Structures are given as C-alpha cells and as structure tokens.
Amino acid sequence: MDKKILLNESDIPTHWYNIVADMPNKPRPPLNPKTGQPAGPDDLSPIFPMGLIQQEVSAEQYIEIPDQVREIYKLWRPAPLFRATGLEKMLDTPAKIYYKYEGVSPSGSHKPNTAVPQAYYNKQEGVKNITTETGAGQWGTALAFACSQFGLNCEVYMVRISYDQKPYRKVMMNTFGAEVFPSPSDRTQAGRNILAEDPETSGSLGIAISEAIERAVMDEQTKYSLGSVLNHVLLHQTIIGQETIKQLEYAGDYPDVVVAPLGGGSNFAGISFPFIKNNLTDGKATRFVAVEPASCPKLTKGKFMYDHGDSAGYTPLLPMYTLGHNFKPAAIHAGGLRYHGASVLCSQLLKDELIEAVALQQLECFEAGVLFAKAEGIISAPEATHAVAQVIREANQAKEEGTEKTILFNLCGHGFVDMLAYEDYFAGKLSDHTISDELLESNIRQIESLQPE
Ligand SMILES: *Cc1c(COP(=O)(O)O)cnc(C)c1O
Q1: N or C: less crowded end of the chain, CB within 10 Å?
Q2: Which atom of ligand 1 is nearest to the CA of 384?
Q3: Hey, what CATH topology would domain 4-8+66-108+232-450 get?
C-alpha cells in the first residue's frame, strides 16, 4: 500500500467541471437588488472581466483550462493524495482514510487554484489593478501571488481582527507585491460608515467585500476578485476532485464519504463536485459532508433565502443558506469559515439533499488538529481541522459498527501561519460558541424585505 499517491504533470486536468450541467434542479438566478430582476452579465461587468462572467453563468459541462494557467498550476499540482495510515492506527479504526493535501501551493491552501485563472482573465482583458478582501489572509496571499505572476497590482482589504492576529499573512502579501489595508478602512464610504458606528469593530468578510467592490466600481482599470462563493470560483476548484478520482483509481479505491470544511463552499465543491457527478450520472452513492463552525452555522441553522454577499448590499442578491448579511460571527480562529452565507451551488445541493451538513465546536476541531499533527505530521489550518474532526467521528462510528468504509477528506491548507490559534488553544483561551436563536431570528428578519414577490 502506498502512503502517498502522486500523479504526473500531464495528469493536471485539462478542463474544469461545471456541476450546473448535471444538477437536477438548476440554481435560481441572482437578482439585481435595485430592480428585483435576474442579474445578467451587464450587472456584473463593472466588477468582473467578461471571461469570468461567462463562466459564472455557464451551463456547459466542461470548460477548458487555458495553457498559461495549467503552466502555473505545475508549480504545485498535481497535489498529493495521502493514505492516513498514522491516523487510522491511532484511531484503531477499520475505516480507510485518505486526504488530498492542498497545503503544497504557494500560499499554503487551495485558493491559488482560482486566484491564477482569475488573474489570467483580468490580464487578458487589459485590467491593471485587482481589489479583494481577505479574512484569515489565505485568499489575499493567493491573489497576491497570482497577480505577481501576471504583473497586476493587488489591493487587499483584510478583516481587522485577522490583520491584528496574523501579521505574517500581511507580510506574505507584501512579499508578493500587494498593498494591504485593515478593514473597515477610511478609504471607502462603506468602511467609513461602519467606523462611525463602531470604531472598535473587529470587521467582517462582508464589510471587507463591500470595501473592495466599492474601490473597483470607482475605477475603470480596476476589477474585483472573490475567493469563494461564486460559481466560477467553485468551478476552478474542481481540479482537486478530478485529480483525486484518478489517484484513488491507482489505489483501487472509491470513497463512501467525502468530507470538507465549508466557509463559502469552494474547497468543499472542489473535492466533492466531480464525485457528486458520479452520484448523479453513474449510480454511485457517496455521502458528502460539509463541516461548518457552530459559531457560524449557515447550513444547519441558516435559512435558504435571497441575500446580499456583502454587508453594504453592493452585490446581487443570491439564493443561498444565510445567517443574514448583517451577521457578525464570533472571533473564532477559523477565519475562512466566518462568512454569513454559502455558495448558491452548495446551497441548492443541500436543499435537494444531495449533500449533508454538520456544525462542530472549535475545541473539538483543535483537539482533532493536534491529534492529526501527531499522527500524520501535518499541522492543519484551523479551517481544515473541522474536516479532521468530522473524519474522526466517521472513523469512530465505523469502529463502533464494525463496518469498513472509505473516507476521503480535503486537507485544504496548512496552519503554519496560524500558530497563534494553536497557542491560544494550548493556553486554554478558546471556548465553544453557539449563536442564540434570538440573534439568528433578528438577523433573518432584516433580510425578509429583500425576498422577491
Ligand atoms: C478560505 C479557506 C477556507 C474556506 O473557504 P471555502 O471557499 O469554503 O473553501 C477553508 N480552508 C482554508 C484553508 C481556506 O483558506
């Protein structure tokens, strides 16, 4: 049995897989918030290049990856698939556990898989500057890297709490040539409004998105880029699952369950969509489990409604599981999972019961992350520990039931720049969080007026 299953560069997928083509219920359209009508390409063109807008609305099953993008992918792809022999032994489970490791990328997570094509299409259309937001700093680092590959300027609005907690992420972005501002900032109206209300705010992804969009709308040569949630982002990530299918073929295996953390949905989509295709078109019966933090439980406690993707309400209204765009998540360390909504595609799949969701507390996740580090030698990003914790639950269940099963999960990033989180965990400074029903209901009430007739 091989510990790690490697592919050749020629095995890097040539196409992205678009699940829209195979979904039994197509996602509902985004709406223009001013007219309430379906938002078309014209609504998106002030902020995105046409190449990405076409992918955003595409129903074609496969979309070809440009050669220049595949060349850059070669820096870290194909990513390794590991058999978690150490973890299996530690848990004494009959389950077989595999993990796809996306921490080998330049920024240490799956995010460059989409940052590179996004920078590519912007460059193609003559864009000079790209603005974006970042939570924990993973996305900002990935986009800063991608922009450096194409000679584009990159301006990053970083959620205040992460800017303070994760100074090295900022330095990484600076190293790739990006400018980084703590958000809310005084550079935008959206930021100034929030600061006037609450000068001490720790910020949120929703606010940072508003700031980055506002900057892009102000300037013709500037576009905006989003690291998760949107269809084209999820599309780009499907190279993860396509590679994994091939790797598991070499191992002679196929997953009974696929597990990944879900912030906006991109790494979950990346590993699971190509396998979901096999459920939909090839009679396979794999389960898919998205893991979210109990402190930001849009999938398990949110409502399927139209909502904005940002706090200021600049984005089209998206039909998704949401906690309301004014939701302010607790300051947990898994920054990438603190977003108020889930992607339209993942939301529709959950609504149609083609995927499952579970919410876990952060202490269980860190405990799992520490166990995994000892068993497998990789320190997981706090986001990824959510998948590890669920995998441990699945493996323990297999042991109790005495059933063999094959578990696959996405180890979407390493935690080398998140050691403060582990330090706080070891010092006993972290606690579990559950959001109150009152808070949840009041946030949802605020978006009821946004629903179409
Ligand atoms: C950004 C990020 C996430 C959450 O985003 P998704 O779009 O849900 O994947 C999870 N893990 C890591 C390591 C991240 O960088």
Answers
A1: C
A2: 11
A3: Rossmann fold (3.40.50)
pTM: 0.97
Is pLDDT above 90 for 206?
Answer: no
Shortest-distance atom of ligand 1 to CA 138: 15
Ligand 1, atom 14: closest residue by C-alpha: 336
Alpha-carbon dihedral sign for residues 381, 382, 387, 388: positive
What's the longest Cα–Cα distance across the chain? 61
DSSP symbol at 354: S
State if residue 83 touches ligand 1 by the CB under 6 angstroms criterion: no
pLDDT given for residue 372 in this prediction: 98
Q: Whose CA is nearest to atom 15 of ligand 1?
A: 138
Cα–Cα distance for residue pair 39/32, rounded to 1 Å: 5
pLDDT of residue 393: 98
**DSSP assignment string, 204-261:** -HHHHHHHHHHHHHH-TTEEE--SSSSHHHHHHHTHHHHHHHHHHHHHT---SEEEEE
**Rounded CA separation 324/339 (Å):** 10
Choosing from 104, 110, 339 the residue with most ligand 1 atoms within 8 A of its CB, the one to mutate for a pocket test is: 110
pLDDT tens digits, 162-171: 899 888 999 9
Q: Which atom of ligand 1 is nearest to the CA of 269?
A: 9
Cα 221 to ligand 1 centre (Å): 28
Rounded Cα–Cα distance for residues 297 and 307 (Å): 16
Q: How far apart are CA 276 and CA 244, in angstroms?
A: 13
**What is the 72 CA–ligand 1 centroid distance (Å)?**
21
User: Which residue is listed with tokens 């696929």?
Assistant: 258
